[in-house]
Amino acid sequence: MTSHVEFDLRALCRDYGDIAAEASSCRSSAALFDFSFMRCIRVCGPEAAVIVQTLTPRRMDDLMTGRIRYALRVDAHGHVLDDVTIWRLDSETFEVFAATGGVLAQLHAAATSITSVRDLSEETAILAVQGPSSLRALAGMGLAAQLRTLPYFGHVQASFAGVGCRIGRLGYTGERGFEIILPRAARDVVWAMLARGARPAGFAAADILRIEAGFPLFANELLFPVSPDELGLARFATEPDAASGPRPSARHTHPIRLVSFQARCDCDPTLWRPPRDVPFPPAPGGLLPTSACRSIITGAILGLGYACDANAATHLIDVTGEFRDIREVSLPLYDPRKRRPRGGWHDDLSPEPAAGPSFI
């Protein structure tokens, strides 16, 4: 094992001088992010699929080579521990991307004499180009033809200015985009080249974008013991075999759900996080905010948080005391059918709408 540092919000680049402009660039053209804080773990050998399956209830043995799957890691009580993306490289090789060391520890515990688990985090960089012009930003590198037909949650081996890399079509912004997995030694050179066509953006902009898209962050939404159902993400933690019986599910006195809300507040909610000692779950009528930002789309305070399932139409009170005039909203406001990230590109590399649902 390596000593790769755990996710630390303070250690990430907060911004490059203008958070709102960085986030707006991703919605209107293209932005460049560094997600190299993520762990990259390779599982290789005849039992690789079985070992990867120990991470999640979501089925993995039917994941095809060249495809990526998002999944939730769930404990014995039915609570979500964290989320992962799993890339299948070939019949006996997977790469797992996660933010916590628990994933690596669980894979090491499941490793066998004929299947290895290797932490590649210290030698791997992860850059993301996100936005409707993300393909155009990569076109100058000679990658447009190779990437234009890449399916959503698909990946391909490529050469980027002589650097071998793997490019996946996915992202954390609710927009079309790509993630580039490359040697850490080449990170600065590749970053400088990508920055010619995509505006560098820090984690504060990424936080705004993912809140607008309704995506959870493990360091915020998963601070509390919640089930996949309560997150609204049960489809990413389904049993691989119904005959094996259901896993235990989380039970609370008051059934809860993750909601999106608009509100007012007196604080600057940039990279806002909830206090760890707040009572959970919230009582009926209460809202426990887990994330908040000033939306670049609405200009209003936008957030995610937990409320009792029976409170859909009631006035919610923030149990932390930070937010007032709370109103539940549907997300994403800019793309209610969540089709934008699945859309492709016209011949001139401009965005085109999604043709239909995408299997991920």
Structural key phrases:
360 residues; alpha+beta; Gyrase A, domain 2; 2 domains; six-stranded mixed sheet; five-stranded antiparallel sheet; 8 helices; 28% strand
Characterize the structure shown.
The chain is α+β, with helices and mostly antiparallel strands and 360 residues long. The protein has eight helices and 16 strands. It has a six-stranded mixed β-sheet. A five-stranded antiparallel β-sheet has the order 3-4-5-2-6. A hairpin with a 2-residue loop joins strand 8 (155-160) and strand 9. The model is unreliable at 1-5 and 242-246 (pLDDT under 50).
SSE inventory with pairings:
Layout: H1 19-28, E1 31-34, E2 39-44, H2 48-53, E3 68-74, E4 80-90, E5 93-98, H3 101-110, E6 116-119, E7 124-130, H4 134-139, H5 144-148, E8 155-160, E9 163-168, E10 177-183, H6 187-194, E11 199-200, H7 203-213, H8 228-231, E12 256-265, E13 286-294, E14 301-308, E15 317-318, E16 323-329
Parallel strand pairs: 1-11, 13-15
Antiparallel strand pairs: 1-7, 2-5, 2-6, 3-4, 4-5, 7-10, 8-9, 9-10, 12-14, 12-16, 13-14
